[in-house]
Write a structure and sequence with these properties.
This protein is α+β, with helices and mostly antiparallel strands and about 290 residues long. The protein is globular. Helix 3 crosses helix 7 and helix 6 crosses helix 7. The strands form four sheets. Strands 1, 2, 3, 4, 7 and 8 form a six-stranded mixed sheet that branches. The protein is built from nine helices and twelve strands. Bound molecules: iron/sulfur cluster. The site of iron/sulfur cluster (SF4) has 11 residues, from helix 3, helix 8 and helix 9.
Length: about 290
């Protein structure tokens, strides 16, 4: 609203809108932000598809049952998840309208590989695909793909990282998910396709800022999936042996060792901390920050 527009209605607003204190608002949000689900105390013993591209050291902490030193799931994240769920429901409804194809929503599965040398345990990974489209009538292909079944993955994301970033000269400095699928989403869908033995997968992006959508069609790449499984299996072996993996990322603790710095200057050079560490739930444990003794 422009200032002159506001000036015209200011008196009306002064009369009709109550002044709230921070405490009044906080008091209500105390109830609104109460989690609706009980936090499970279950210790995870297997992998999930979303682990496939996680830092192996973070995975080690997580699967070993270490308590998060930098928990990120607060009221704000829970609301972001709830919004994502609502968007997914809306997209699912629309896929039910695809003629000649049956849409199966939220299909869970697991990839189990029996123990084999040189691994110390068998391998088990849980996944859940957002949907499966199965042809039951007619010969109408989807997006020109000659297949009778497709795995679907829905992702709702903000304008950044959805949109491709260009500088004033028009040079690309960032590939948005609209044009290039995010690597973790690519890996997750590949695992879903592999688990369901389906050759094609459809990755559907939804921009939360403006409802713009983009679709990528992926072809199963078994070599890629085998490599992912090997990587996770090796982490599992290390957990069994109690061997903490090396840090695959760089970050720079501040002098007091209370937090990670985004950047660090050394002479003329500036070094950037990897964002993986800046947002990691185990950053304090990993980098020895905020030690009490
Ligand atoms: S702080 Fe960085 S290196 Fe350490 S576990 Fe987290 S992401 Fe991995």
């Amino acid at each position: 609203m422009k200032i002159e527009e506001f000036d015209k209605i200011k008196e009306l607003y002064d009369e009709s809108i109550l002044e709230l204190t921070k405490e009044d608002t906080a008091d209500l949000f105390k109830y609104l932000d109460k989690p609706i689900q009980w936090k499970s105390n279950r210790t995870r013993r297997t992998f999930y598809a979303s682990d496939a591209t996680r830092c192996e050291r973070q995975l080690f902490y997580s699967v070993s049952g270490e308590k998060e030193t930098n928990p990120s799931i607060g009221p704000k994240q829970l609301k972001i998840f709830a919004l994502g769920d609502a968007i997914h429901e809306g997209i699912s409804e629309r896929y039910k309208k695809v003629g000649g194809w049956q849409f199966y929503e939220e299909v869970p599965g697991e990839i189990h590989i029996p123990k084999a040398e040189p691994h110390e345990n068998d391998f088990l990974l849980h996944y859940r695909v957002d949907g499966i489209l199965d042809r039951f009538a007619g010969d109408k292909d989807i997006m020109g793909i000659d297949a009778d079944r497709m795995i679907l993955e829905f992702k709702s994301i903000a304008d950044f990282p959805y949109t491709t970033g260009k500088n004033k000269k028009g040079d690309i400095y960032w590939f948005g998910a609209k044009d290039v699928p995010k690597y973790d989403h690519f890996a997750q869908l590949q695992l879903g396709m592999y688990g369901e033995s389906v050759k094609y997968g459809l990755l559907h992006y939804y921009n939360k800022n403006n409802s713009e959508e983009a679709i990528h069609v992926l072809k199963l790449n078994e070599t890629f999936v085998h490599d992912l499984i090997q990587r996770m299996w090796e982490v599992m072996d290390r957990i069994a042996r109690g061997e903490l993996p090396e840090r695959p990322f760089k970050a720079y603790p501040n002098k007091g060792k209370t937090a990670l710095q985004k950047t660090k200057k050394e002479g003329e050079k500036t070094f950037k901390s990897d964002w993986h560490c800046l947002y990691c739930n185990y950053a304090d444990m990993c980098w020895g920050l905020n030690k009490t003794e």
